[in-house]
Amino acid sequence: MNLKLLLSTTLISASLVSAAQDANRTFAITGDGNGDFMWMNIRQVDINTGKILQDVYQRNKTAFVFADADTKKAVGTSAQPTETMVAAAAYDKNQNKLFFTPMRIGELRWLDLGAKGNAQKFYTVKSALLNSAESIRDEAKNFTRMVIGADGNGYALTNDANRLVRFTTGKKITITDLGNLIDDESNKTISIHNQCSSWGGDMIADAYNKLYVISANHYVFSVDIETRVAKYIGNIGGLPANYSTNGAAVDKDGAIVVASANAFAGYYKFTLTDFNAKKIEGSDMVYNASDLANGNLLFQKEVDAAKKLGTADFKAVVPVITNEAHIFPNPVTANEFKISFDGQAAGRYNIAITDLSGKPVMNRVVTVNGKTQIETIPLNRTFAKGMYMVKVTDANNKFIFTERIVVQ
């Protein structure tokens, strides 16, 4: 009896330690040291103390394998995965991957942190949605902000905020152009598109599936993904005069930690209640950081409490389970979409469509055989615009996949 209790206590303690370590697991894009501004290295940091924990990847030093994600063919060891430097990165804790896009390169790349072997394994996907040949040298069109949202998808934003893209993070990467951000009427002269106030910086996300843009010049905007409306909510104070806010991440207590790409002055943190930044004493002053990335979400504690209490007006965000695209086109623009059942066994499948709160909107049963792997799902013409979840189960009610769609 005592032995069982001791083992249970040990396991619980180990789980708590593991959860705390996971919450603190943060990655920084840095240079080689004080005075170096080549942001090509990846280091793991302790978000609470700002201390460097591990050199994950160092340019020209770390052994790596670099392959095209679709063809699996090697890109070549002559090309550094972080070439041309990185200003946008996002950590997906569910997939244990660090996504990023190098500046002036139209590719989404990632490091598989769970891969085995002595060499770090990088993958890349090319997409004209990230940068075309015409815009690749235009600073305004470079992606400098990136985060994994509460829905499990990745989001990246250009400097000028005229292109917000969403990407899945599973085996098959799909990139979708969501369009430009729109200034909230209350923003007045502080526009999300303004070069002086709102370019650069980073993005974080909250547990309600909102995004937050923290610009290099300390301006903070909240972004509603569904409407793409960006609202100016405050300016960070208490920072050194030359301190640009280029990296941002959330700590386990819900505070926002920021790092600078041009100042070797350590990390600072603030909250959305007062925007007054305070230095994390003892934090790293050797490596500046062009980006920070971890898996924490703002307001996660509040969401967990609301779930526990069963708050009536709380709307749960249903995360993408597989992060592989089965539905197209998405967004849905012609009152119908298609579902690919490629790889699934023949039989009957149930398709349930709900709103983001889980309220049923539509249900349909389809029969799939060996030759018909794509089914068209028509929507009523009165189907309201907005975001919905599509859940597919088989005849035995076994879960197959769920994905979010946008009906326009």
Written description of the protein model:
With about 400 residues, this protein is mainly β. It is built from three helices and 29 strands. Strand 15 and strand 16 form a beta hairpin.
Major beta sheet summary: 5 strands, mixed
Instruction: Please state roughly what percent of the residues sit in beta strands, choosing from under 5%, 5-15%, 15-25%, 25-35%, 35-45% or over 45%.
Output: 35-45%
| Total domain count | 2
Head-to-tail CA distance between termini: 60 Å
Short description, anyone?
This protein is mainly beta and 408 residues long. The protein is built from 3 helices and 29 strands. It folds into 2 domains: 22-303, Neuraminidase, CATH 2.120.10.30; 327-407, Immunoglobulin-like (Sandwich).
